[in-house]
Amino acid sequence: MTHSRTLLSITFMMFNTMKQRVITFSRNVFIPLTTVCHNRCGYCCFRTPVQDGCILQPHEIEHTLRTGAALGCTEALFTFGERPGLEPGFNAYIERIGYRDILHYCYSLCENSISAGLLPHTNAGILTFEELEYLSQVNASMGLMLETTAEIPAHRNSPGKDPAVRIEMLENAGKLKIPFTTGLLLGIGEKESDREESLMVIRDLHRRYGHIQEVIIQNFCPKENTLMAGYPTVSPDEICLCIMMAKQILPDDIAVQIPPNLADAGRLIRCGVDDLGGVSPLTIDYVNPEHPWPQIDELRALVGSTELKERLCIYPQYIRRQWYPGRLEPIINQLHQNLMDKERW
Question: What is the reported pTM?
Answer without folding.
Answer: 0.92
